[in-house]
Amino acid sequence: MIIQKNISLKKYNTFGIDVNAKRFISVDSVYQLQQLLIAEKNIFLISGGSNMLLTKDIEKLVVHIDIKGISIDREDNNDVYLTVNAGEDWHQFVVWCVSNNFGGIENLSLIPGNVGTCPIQNIGAYGVEVKDSITKVEAIEIETRKLIQFSNEACNFGYRNSIFKNEAKGKYILTSVSFKLTKKNHQLNTSYGAIEDKLAFNKIINPTLKNISDAVIAIRNSKLPDPKKLGNSGSFFKNPIISKQHFSALQTEHQNIPSYVISDTEVKVPAGWLVEQVGFKGKRFGDAGVHKNQALVLVNYGNASGTEIYQLSKKIQEMVYNKFKISLEIEVNIIN
Ligand code: EPU
Asked: 188 in ligand 1 pocket by Cβ < 6 Å?
């Protein structure tokens, strides 16, 4: 274990923000992490770096989680139970599952980031959330260095939310995630409009896991920027949930406002639509901007600072609030 000095974090965060780590270490086993924690408690964790906006140099020791490995714990005729270490790339894991005909996460193809962070924000796309396939999460408690298991229930999953964004925040290092996936009778989820359209366009009537994964990849590629080419962190804001009353009031002025029903009293409004309505879609300010195909995604054209992107997000929040009286909540972790 070698601690490196003054390392640029540009390649460790998908926004491509160039800040420095005073000290940096990459760890590839749980044991190494536990050893490290004997001497170092004040650490800053970085995994896939796909859900953070870095705004300044990191003074704490930056610990890059690089623990790899996938194991099949057991299987029966219908299901397979897997444990995947935190440092595995999420999309590569999805591709591996699809190629083995393990079903449940194919709609989550091409989401940037590592397996170890997927439970934190309960990644979701095209009608599927990862919480529905997770059986347990294992983590080191930083204070005691003990390995702790969180059952699915204990993770307290919600829309882009979990215990790891709330009470447990900053107290644990997620080391592995366990999944239950189907081997047959897959519960395919093709209800999301764009997937249905894509499958119909390709004349696919009985889709395989691969067909769905391919459809998702095509949809994402057409809307969402590839972080390797254009820095971004996916959706910057959550889709806000508002009361039906508030929604009805807005509808009188904006007849075409889209929505998804959440409950008898609440609806979710796509934040991308709100950002577009206040004129920010495709706008660029220096190297910080809003993506041209999906207004929910803020982008770094090359050398934007985290602060510039954060300031742009504040401006968007203000404009959306003034026009719709809706407060957009930031989904990405702002490191300041
Ligand atoms: N819309 C616009 N303008 C835009 C973008 C969207 O008007 O620029 C409206 C359209 O009405 C569109 C609707 O928003 O029909 C929904 O857009 P989309 O299907 O792209 O989904 P989203 O609600 O904007 C959410 C997730 C994405 C996920 C997609 C697909 C959140 C915060 N975002 O976006 O997740 O891929 O659904 O399921 O829930 C991410 O979290 O990083 C992410 C990309």
From this structure: no
Nearest atom within ligand 1 for CA of residue 159: 39
* pLDDT classification of 192: cutoffs 50, 70, 90: confident
State the Cα–Cα distance between residues 133 and 105, nearest whole angstrom.
Answer: 7
Q: In this predicted structure, what is the pLDDT of residue 41?
A: 84
CATH class as words, domain 4-65: alpha beta
- CB–CB of 281/312 below 8 Å? no
Mean pLDDT of 67-83: 98
What is the topology classification, in CATH, of domain 231-335? 3.90.78
Return the domain boundaries, the chain. 4-65, 70-223, 231-335
Give pLDDT, residue 55.
Answer: 98
Q: Using CB atoms within 10 Å of the CB of residue 5, give its burial: 0 to 12 exposed, 13 to 18 middle, 19+ buried.
A: exposed
- Four-CA torsion 25, 30, 31, 33, nearest 10 degrees: 30
User: How close is the Cα of 141 to the center of ligand 1, in Å?
Assistant: 35
Two tokens, residue 189: 């989820």
pLDDT on residue 172: 96
Q: How far apart are CA 218 and CA 196, in angstroms?
A: 13
CATH class as words, domain 70-223: alpha beta
What is the three-class DSSP state of 270? coil
Residues marked as catalytic:
160, 235, 331
Is the CB–ligand 1 distance for residue 23 below 6 Å?
Answer: no
d(CA 111, CA 235): 11
| Euclidean distance between CA atoms 254 and 328, whole angstroms | 18
Kindly report, residue by residue over 27-39, the tens digit of the pLDDT: 999 999 999 999 9
pLDDT tens digits, one per residue of 241-283: 999 999 999 999 999 999 999 999 999 999 999 999 999 999 9
Cβ–ligand 1 contact at 281 (below 6 Å): yes
Protein residue closest via CA to atom 6 of ligand 1: 272
216 CB within 6 A, ligand 1: no
